[in-house]
């Protein structure tokens, strides 16, 4: 009897020691029950998660469109679309991956985009103002440091970076997707690396059109589409681009896009041309994931470098991906994004991907 009790006590002690040695990051995360994930906790008339948020701006009040997909107390991922001037719709592919892991999606059309108000005032297309807009949306949707993950893709990555530099205390995790933190470096990469991959005759004709400022010339996009967009934006023939992408890009606010970016993705010449936060990102302590694609319009080495500069950085490399790695290297992108969010949720500050 004493031997039996000794064995039981030893086994109990061993189990306790093993349990104590398991780090929070190693815990198995169990996705919520389907009923809990899709439970609508709003008290007013049900709208399928849609909420119009009123924002205050120097030009008055406007309304922006948001939609919650799912219900997760600890993992709410707000999505900032690119362009500038596209819509939330190209993020719809995430519904095929993230909800299964219990991650809530928060769609949001920035002012001037998609379902949100469009003041049609170019003075409103301003980075600091958009930062304050994101903060007002965060407050309205009750997102905080215990649940708020912010993903910005392309232009959205600029906005997410700038938001984090001012308001990182409200973030649980930051994802900078397919975006450098220096627009001058972005422009340099386009001219010194990507331009050299063009057929010289094609590049000469593109430069000729640009020199004349003849961007409305249909030949301009006819040259860029197969020679640049299908190689560095989304690596498929444009006729085969996924419907959520074409639907989103088809609603592009050209006023916003040209004001901020310039006439095309081939370099940058708009208001953002001099934006550079290479020095400032060292102050970011929030767990940060940088995502880059081998064939991106952005330099993948720069995006890897970002993860070494922030205090708690992780890097996801999409070897088959371009600017839309969430589509043309989808499994890599979604697997890495999910692992990062779950890892941070379980206490990791840096996630091995």
Automatic annotation (TrEMBL):
<feature type="signal peptide">
    <location>
        <begin position="1"/>
        <end position="20"/>
    </location>
</feature>
<keyword id="KW-0732">Signal</keyword>
<dbReference type="InterPro" id="IPR050266">
    <property type="entry name" value="AB_hydrolase_sf"/>
</dbReference>
<dbReference type="GO" id="GO:0006508">
    <property type="term" value="P:proteolysis"/>
</dbReference>
<dbReference type="InterPro" id="IPR000073">
    <property type="entry name" value="AB_hydrolase_1"/>
</dbReference>
<comment type="similarity">
    <text>Belongs to the peptidase S33 family.</text>
</comment>
<dbReference type="InterPro" id="IPR005945">
    <property type="entry name" value="Pro_imino_pep"/>
</dbReference>
<dbReference type="InterPro" id="IPR002410">
    <property type="entry name" value="Peptidase_S33"/>
</dbReference>
<dbReference type="InterPro" id="IPR029058">
    <property type="entry name" value="AB_hydrolase_fold"/>
</dbReference>
<dbReference type="GO" id="GO:0008233">
    <property type="term" value="F:peptidase activity"/>
</dbReference>
<dbReference type="Pfam" id="PF00561">
    <property type="entry name" value="Abhydrolase_1"/>
</dbReference>
<keyword id="KW-0378">Hydrolase</keyword>
<dbReference type="GO" id="GO:0016020">
    <property type="term" value="C:membrane"/>
</dbReference>
<feature type="domain" description="AB hydrolase-1">
    <location>
        <begin position="77"/>
        <end position="328"/>
    </location>
</feature>
<protein>
    <submittedName>
        <fullName>Proline iminopeptidase</fullName>
    </submittedName>
</protein>
């Amino acid at each position: 009897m004493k031997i039996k009790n000794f064995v039981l006590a030893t086994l109990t002690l061993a189990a306790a020691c093993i349990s104590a040695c398991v780090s929070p990051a190693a815990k198995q995360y169990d996705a919520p029950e389907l009923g809990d994930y899709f439970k609508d906790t709003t008290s007013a008339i049900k709208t399928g998660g849609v909420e119009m948020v009123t924002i205050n701006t120097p030009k008055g009040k406007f309304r922006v469109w948001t939609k919650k997909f799912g219900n997760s107390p600890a993992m709410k991922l707000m999505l900032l679309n690119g362009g500038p001037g596209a819509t939330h719709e190209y993020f719809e592919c995430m519904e095929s991956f993230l909800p299964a892991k219990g991650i809530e999606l928060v769609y949001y059309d920035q002012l001037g985009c998609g379902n949100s108000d469009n003041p049609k005032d170019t003075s409103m297309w301003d980075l600091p103002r958009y930062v304050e807009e994101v903060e007002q949306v965060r407050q309205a949707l009750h997102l905080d440091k215990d649940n708020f993950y912010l993903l910005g893709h392309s232009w959205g990555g600029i906005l997410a970076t700038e938001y984090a530099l001012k308001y990182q205390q409200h973030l649980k995790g930051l994802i900078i997707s397919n975006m450098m933190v220096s627009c001058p470096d972005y422009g340099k990469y386009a001219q010194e690396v990507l331009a050299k991959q063009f057929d010289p005759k094609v590049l000469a004709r593109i430069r000729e059109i640009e020199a004349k400022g003849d961007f409305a010339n249909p030949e301009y996009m006819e040259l860029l589409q197969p020679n640049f967009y299908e190689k560095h934006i989304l690596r498929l023939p444009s006729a085969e681009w996924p419907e959520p992408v074409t639907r989103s890009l088809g609603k592009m606010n050209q006023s916003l896009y040209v004001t901020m970016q310039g006439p095309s993705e081939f370099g940058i010449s708009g208001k953002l041309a001099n934006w550079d936060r290479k020095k400032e990102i060292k102050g970011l302590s929030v767990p940060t994931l940088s995502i880059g694609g081998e064939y991106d319009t952005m330099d993948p080495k720069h995006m890897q470098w970002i993860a070494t500069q922030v205090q708690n950085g992780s890097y996801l490399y999409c070897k088959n991906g371009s600017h839309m790695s969430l589509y043309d290297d989808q499994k890599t992108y979604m697997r890495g994004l999910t692992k990062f969010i779950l890892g941070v949720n379980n206490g990791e500050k840096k996630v091995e991907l």
